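F.,

This is the one I mentioned.
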């Protein structure tokens, strides 16, 4: 049923306190309800047992709780779990739990679909339908934290914004969600365990620096040569590498945080020495780390993972230039849960 009632979780704690005062109640009632909504994960007003029945009814008359619902949970043979998450308006996004020996990482979505057009990414085939609200991002994290405790006997340790969507195109809501995730009233997680991954929106990277955010930044670079990058990530035409680099220099000057680059090496696209040289030149202004990620095929074979020699060349040239490099294996491929495979197939 569609409703014109307001989503109660769009209110700040102050707004909720003011609401109760206006209703002739006391401000602390706002704290109580806020705690139910954010710390105790209430799905309905009925759950709020220390609030009177009349007050619960009054809340029911004015607000809704637009909680997400995990519609379909798929488990991979390697322990990865993919959730199809149904939003209050019926749209679906996906989020993934990735366990390793030492950590459990949640990979969460920030938009339904994506407005960018990376040619190797399944999500780009879905047009951007809407931004996720802060509570919808928060709920994905809570759902994965529960699954982590249930299936891996430990709480969630890390979060990456590498699911569907471009987080910096939904910056305000992502920031609000991270505030909730890191606050004691939410999950109390350290921002240092959160990575926001971007295709590179220069203006927003500068804004993040100005906002002095405490979480980490990863940039999906894939090529440091404009013509190559534009051919695989067409929005690079609008946000060319020089602008991206300038924004990253600004970020580094303000935060002194090492910059992480996500990078896939494809056969005949970026697997030559000149590609590595351009990457080294691009990175050298700040301490950097390059994650070489495995390509997860999404289509007819237009893109193919480069061979092992090309990867070895990247590793040895980067290391020789004192750039940290890791080679990442994909997880959850058998359930289409790996990077770039999220496209609501199930
Ligand atoms: N829009 C953000 C976050 C979502 S994509 C970003 O671009 O960073 C998360 C990561 O998966 C990015 O590094 C992206 O480049 C990578 N990716 C997308 N499609 C992929 C594929 N088919 N195989 C491997 N990595 C992919």
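My design for it:
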């Amino acid at each position: 049923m569609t409703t014109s009632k307001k989503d109660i979780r769009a209110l700040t704690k102050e707004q909720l306190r003011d609401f109760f005062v206006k209703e002739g109640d006391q401000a602390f009632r706002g704290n109580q309800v806020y705690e139910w909504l954010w710390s105790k994960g209430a799905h309905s007003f009925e759950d709020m047992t220390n609030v009177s029945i009349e007050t619960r009814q009054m809340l029911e008359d004015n607000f809704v709780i637009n909680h997400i619902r995990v519609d379909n949970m798929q488990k991979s043979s390697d322990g990865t779990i993919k959730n199809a998450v149904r939003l209050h308006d019926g749209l679906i996004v996906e989020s993934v739990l990735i366990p390793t020996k030492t950590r459990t990482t949640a990979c969460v979505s920030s938009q339904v679909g994506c407005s960018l057009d990376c040619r190797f990414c399944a999500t780009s085939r879905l047009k951007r339908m809407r931004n996720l609200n802060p509570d919808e991002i928060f709920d994905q994290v809570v759902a994965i934290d529960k699954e982590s405790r249930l299936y891996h006997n430990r709480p969630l340790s890390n979060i990456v914004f590498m699911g569907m969507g471009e987080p910096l195109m939904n910056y305000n809501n992502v920031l609000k969600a991270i505030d909730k995730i890191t606050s004691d009233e939410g999950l109390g997680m350290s921002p240092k365990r959160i990575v926001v991954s971007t295709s590179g929106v220069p203006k927003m990277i500068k804004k993040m620096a100005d906002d002095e955010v405490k979480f980490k930044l990863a940039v999906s670079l894939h090529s440091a040569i404009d013509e190559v990058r534009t051919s695989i990530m067409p929005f690079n035409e609008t946000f060319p590498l020089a602008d991206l680099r300038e924004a990253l220099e600004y970020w580094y000057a303000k935060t002194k945080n090492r910059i992480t680059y996500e990078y896939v090496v494809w056969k005949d696209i970026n697997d030559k020495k000149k590609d590595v040289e351009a990457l080294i030149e691009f990175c050298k202004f700040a301490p950097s780390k390059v994650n070489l990620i495995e390509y997860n095929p999404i289509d007819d074979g237009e893109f193919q993972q480069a061979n092992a020699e090309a990867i070895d060349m990247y590793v040895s040239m980067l290391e020789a230039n004192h750039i940290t490099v890791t080679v990442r294996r994909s997880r959850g491929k058998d359930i289409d849960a790996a990077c770039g495979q999220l496209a609501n197939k199930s």
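The pocket of S-adenosyl-L-homocysteine is lined by residues 118, 120-121, 162, 166, 197-199, 220, 262, 264, 293, 295-296, 298, 339-340 (CB under 6 Å).

Talk soon.
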